[in-house]
Specification:
It contains 15 helices and twelve strands. The strands form two sheets. A six-stranded mixed sheet has the order 3-2-1-4-6-5, sandwiched between helices. A six-stranded mixed sheet has the order 9-8-7-10-12-11, with helices on both faces. It is α/β, with parallel strands linked by helices and about 375 residues long.
């Protein structure tokens, strides 16, 4: 429990956009917020944000950072030394961390006297056991290059774990659940007692589920095969798997809404893409039920998880053996907010993602801990 009110500006600085929200964590009250799109100059973008929050009394800034590597397993109070340590992780997430870092550096210039904290997407998965995070490659090679499963979407999965426990009316420590964050990026997590014990994304956010433009799981031999067969460079093939694969590669678009409309109109390519997306999900649900040994709930979040009744139904179909049964009337109902849609012994929830609330809470807790606040 936070001991006092604290106005925290949450910044999610991407390569071409900056999302922001000003929150008071104890009440999760949004005092301001918005999205600055097509950012070519982060300083100019942040100055626009400064204008919109001027006079609202910012007391701290919390930054989303995608990759914390092995260095950072909890929120980090940002100092010049800490920022330089963050810079060393850019090679692990070249599409995300440099943009996150640029937002941090700019915010520290704009608000030099305001304490700032980095909150990591990978930190929630720092509890993975060795059997889950270790790849079967030579140990010295893996250690030398930091090759292991890190996992991502941890801010979202941590939030969902706590909200699911609240909906179950049980302590987090006594719950076992599967969290499904389904959007343009998608990942699954097996969570026992509030701690991640397995997750679908790996060294990078490319592994795991089929995503909007990312392939997800592949036979590793496909990469060198494509290099040899097409004459493309390894970097070009990596870009192909990151930006032109997944749903986009299967059916020409990464918009699930468009795919569902096309499938309803008889488009076989769109229907097959949806089937593949749901099938991969189903496999992970079954695997993670086995990992957990007992399953209390499955929770859906993210744009697709929250809004696609079709995907929820398809990936849970025929999983009665796991205690998973949908109430299709509730699943199809056009509802917003947290809701239960299951009809079996394992509860099924839809929980809107709110990463900004989670970042603000972790930022406040980090600052209180650094000040020795009880």
């Amino acid at each position: 429990m936070l001991s006092r009110s604290m106005r925290i500006l949450v910044l999610n600085s991407g390569s071409s956009s900056i999302k922001y929200r000003l929150l008071d964590p104890p009440r999760s009250e949004a005092l301001a917020g918005g999205l600055i799109e097509e950012v070519t100059d982060h300083r100019e973008g942040l100055h626009r944000i400064v204008s919109s929050v001027s006079g609202l009394g910012i007391q701290a800034v919390g930054h989303r950072v995608v990759h914390g590597g092995d260095l950072f397993r909890e929120p980090l109070l940002l100092t010049p030394v800490a920022v330089e340590r963050l810079r060393s992780l850019n090679p692990l997430a070249p599409l995300h961390n440099p943009a996150n870092l640029l937002g941090i550096e700019t915010a520290r210039e704009v608000w030099p006297d305001v304490p700032q904290v980095a909150v990591f997407d990978t930190a929630f998965h720092a509890t993975l056991p060795p059997a889950a995070f270790t790849y079967a490659i030579p140990e010295d090679l893996a250690r030398r290059h930091g090759i292991r499963r890190y996992g991502f979407h941890g801010i979202s999965h941590g939030f969902i774990a706590r909200r699911t426990a609240a909906l179950l009316q049980r302590p987090v420590a006594s719950t076992r659940l599967i969290s499904l964050h389904l959007g343009n990026g998608a990942s699954a997590a097996a969570i026992r007692a509030g701690r991640s014990v397995d997750t679908s994304m790996g060294l990078t956010p490319l592994e795991g589920l089929v995503m909007g433009t990312r392939s997800g799981d592949l036979d590793p031999a496909i990469l060198p095969l494509l290099v040899r067969a097409t004459g493309r460079s390894a970097d070009d093939v990596e870009t192909l798997l990151l930006r032109d694969s997944g749903l986009k590669g299967l059916a020409g678009t990464n918009d699930m809404r468009e795919l569902e409309q096309r499938a309803d109109a008889g488009d076989e390519r769109a229907g097959r893409a949806i089937e593949i997306f749901a099938y991969r999900l189903k496999k992970y649900i079954g695997a993670y039920a086995a990992v957990l040994g007992r399953l209390d709930a499955v929770s859906f979040t993210g744009g697709i998880g929250e809004h696609s009744a079709r995907i929820r139904s398809a990936c849970l179909k025929d999983l009665e053996l796991l205690g998973l049964v949908l109430d299709e009337a509730k699943n199809l109902a056009p509802a917003k907010g947290e809701r239960e849609i299951g009809a079996g012994p394992v509860r099924v929830f839809v929980i809107p993602a709110d990463e900004e609330v989670e970042i603000a809470a972790q930022t406040a807790a980090c600052l209180e801990a650094s000040r020795g606040t009880p």
